[in-house]
Specification:
This protein folds into three domains: 198 residues, TIM Barrel (Alpha-Beta Barrel), CATH 3.20.20; 78 residues, no CATH class; 114 residues, no CATH class. Helices cover 52% and strands 14% of the residues. Helix 14 packs across helix 18.
Length: 405
């Protein structure tokens, strides 16, 4: 699998030319081609990239994100993994509208989800009519409607539901824009305003074995501590979860101190939905053999063992936080992104941020010394022992235990 991931976005503007939202688009390379053979998988990939790779705030700057779906997505388990505060769920014109779908949309609407209909023209009126009362935006397929008929199309839609916002899409010139604006359209999208932008990032997908192991653990009711162990073994899985939490509104995730804390805040059902999203989006078969991952795991173990040696086993949260700092401390090397930017997209406690950025506080001090313990330099290790009042042999035992466990 490529070490690069891509996502497209195209601006949606209001009548004043201000950006109201973005449509997120499936892309599989810098050339901008979208080879979509499976709508469900393409949507899952866009969602996974937006939430777990780039971070939704980074992509949209707080604006809403439109994303293409059909009945397979809306009726699926991972629908609930989509943060309703950030997304508009856009129904493709090929969607199979059934009673089950209408009921599902009605239920999700009550929960706060926002829906749109894509590529609409009057010929789809009878198909989408049962959904119109639950839809907030309808995107008119302008290229398939004669200019002199656009006003009537808008009036027909507003007669069905006067609260619908009509979005004119695929606008390529000023004349079409002016006609649509006069016809009553309030949102606009097309090459006349901006072409889709292709954004490239480093692939942070967890391995297939990591995701499948997590899926099995959740569905076999393993304990939270057993699930935490899976995250401890797979740094990419942990980073994906933290980025997802940052994209998931509605809860206070800015004081996360441990993986266990994050799982408790999110809840088992939401965690299961997130794993389903990862599975639908396509799994990375990469195995964690790179030295940098091994180094992150070893540093995490050293931090944990040092914490126990210094502070005993009484404060489990502090010990777990030390382990988390150890893994996060190498994420800049793993992702080729600065630690400052990583921490903008990963909501952890201020103590953890200070430790990672400035080596401040108990955790920062521990991280500073853990880096010396990793070295093969005997003098460095002795210096750490003197500072921490731990014997040289005691530090070697910690290092060996971390590397062999």
């Amino acid at each position: 699998m490529s070490d690069k991931v891509f996502i497209g976005k195209q601006a949606i503007l209001d009548v004043d030319g201000d950006i109201e939202a973005y449509e997120l688009l499936f892309r599989d390379g810098q050339l901008g081609y979208a080879n979509v053979s499976d709508n469900k998988k393409a949507t899952a990939r866009v969602l996974s990239n937006a939430l777990n790779q780039f971070g939704i705030e980074h992509l949209t700057g707080g604006a809403k994100a439109f994303i293409n779906t059909d009945e397979t997505i809306i009726l699926s388990d991972f629908m609930k993994s989509i943060p309703k505060e950030h997304f508009v769920i856009e129904l493709l014109e090929t969607t199979n509208v059934t009673r089950d779908l209408v009921n599902r949309v009605a239920s999700l609407k009550k929960e706060g989800y926002t829906f749109a209909i894509d590529d609409y023209t009057g010929q789809y009126k009878s198909i989408f009519y049962p959904l119109m009362q639950y839809v907030s935006v309808v995107k008119l397929e302008i290229m398939d409607i004669p200019l002199d008929e656009i006003k009537q199309e808008v009036e027909d839609l507003l007669e069905i539901n006067s609260e619908i916002e009509v979005l004119a899409e695929k606008i390529e010139d000023r004349e079409t824009f002016e006609v649509c604006k006069k016809a009553g359209c309030t949102l606009f999208q097309g090459y006349f305003f901006s072409k889709p932008i292709i954004i490239e990032g480093k692939n942070l997908d967890p391995s297939s074995m990591a995701v499948l192991s997590l899926f099995n653990a959740i569905n076999s009711d393993k304990s939270t501590s057993q699930i935490v162990m899976l995250f401890d073994k797979h740094p990419k899985l942990m980073l994906s979860l933290f980025k997802y939490l940052n994209s998931h509104g509605g809860k206070n995730f800015n004081e996360i101190t441990t993986i266990q804390n994050a799982i408790s805040l999110l809840g088992r059902d939401a965690l299961s939905n997130w794993v389903a999203l990862l599975m639908f989006s396509g799994l990375n078969d990469e195995k964690f053999t790179e030295p940098i991952f091994e180094m992150a795991l070893n540093r995490s173990k050293i931090m944990k063992l040092l914490a126990v040696k210094l502070w005993g086993k009484g404060d489990q949260e502090l010990i777990d936080s030390a382990s988390l700092v150890g893994i996060l401390s190498l994420m800049d090397a793993i992702t080729s992104v600065s630690m400052e930017n990583i921490l903008k997209e990963v909501n952890v406690s201020d103590d953890i941020k200070k430790a990672l950025l400035k080596f401040e506080g108990n955790l920062g001090r521990l991280l500073y010394f853990a880096k010396f313990v990793e070295q093969e330099n005997e003098d460095f290790i002795k210096q750490v022992g003197d500072k921490l009042n731990i014997s040289f042999d005691g530090l070697l035992d910690i290092k060996n235990e971390a590397y062999l466990s």
